[in-house]
Amino acid sequence: MCMMLGRRAAAKAGCFARVSPPRISLQPPPRPITPAARAFLTIAQTVRPVTKNVAFRIPLSQFRPASTSTPTPTSSHSTPHFSSAQQHYQRHRAHNTRTTMYYTASVIVLFIGASYAAVPLYKLICTQTGLDGTPLTAPGHKFEPASMIPVENAQKIRIRFASSVSDAMRWSFVPVTPEIHIVPGETALAFYTAHNPSKEDIVGISTYSVVPAKAAQYFNKIQCFCFEEQKLEAGEEVDMPVFFYIDPEFAYDPWMKDVKTITLHYTFFKSKNQ
């Protein structure tokens, strides 16, 4: 039937079978295996089962970044090296804590000592330099014969005496002579009167100052009752002397030309030791 049909009809009727073109292999033919290659394959097949189950363990520290802090142990089974590093860190931290405590304690002790030493140090500096209107009472400024010679033709200076008491002090304290006039180098003696009108004994202590403050360096006191405890019994009254002089250099200092009056002021306080 297929022979009677035309070419196209025969193709549609499936009379022609599809024939695949032959495949041409481009690979070269296999080479024969040499005895050396056959021996190598035999050794490889023998070793492969052994090496296949081998586990290579690499420490994790090789892959961790470097850190300055000591790692925290995650289990109770720590290595000796890790335990040593942890102990070193704890010792270093304890040392730093002790050092900080020592420094803090030293600063506290220093400030406490400075608070107790402030008053005597201030008094020493003032008596040496005349700071803040404090008269000079250092040994180098007292009882010098060359300094206690009155300056001839020098202008006289008015010396005023003032007094006061603190609110807690129940004394009456006043100068006997309100003022005197002297020349530089001339010694003078003045008195203050203190009276205790209460019915109990009272211990007092006094401070003093000079106004104007720039004249304090020339105000030399030979004897006074300042910075010394004075005890007055109930109803007692005493006179307290002040022996002093003005340094002769006062007359030659151009900064003192405008100073005509010097005021010596005393203030009495109740002693804390009573």
UniProtKB/TrEMBL annotation:
<feature type="transmembrane region" description="Helical">
    <location>
        <begin position="100"/>
        <end position="119"/>
    </location>
</feature>
<dbReference type="GO" id="GO:0005743">
    <property type="term" value="C:mitochondrial inner membrane"/>
</dbReference>
<protein>
    <recommendedName>
        <fullName>Cytochrome c oxidase assembly protein CtaG/Cox11</fullName>
    </recommendedName>
</protein>
<comment type="function">
    <text>Exerts its effect at some terminal stage of cytochrome c oxidase synthesis, probably by being involved in the insertion of the copper B into subunit I.</text>
</comment>
<dbReference type="InterPro" id="IPR023471">
    <property type="entry name" value="CtaG/Cox11_dom_sf"/>
</dbReference>
<feature type="region of interest" description="Disordered">
    <location>
        <begin position="65"/>
        <end position="85"/>
    </location>
</feature>
<keyword id="KW-0472">Membrane</keyword>
<dbReference type="GO" id="GO:0005507">
    <property type="term" value="F:copper ion binding"/>
</dbReference>
<keyword id="KW-1133">Transmembrane helix</keyword>
<dbReference type="InterPro" id="IPR007533">
    <property type="entry name" value="Cyt_c_oxidase_assmbl_CtaG"/>
</dbReference>
<dbReference type="Pfam" id="PF04442">
    <property type="entry name" value="CtaG_Cox11"/>
</dbReference>
<keyword id="KW-0812">Transmembrane</keyword>
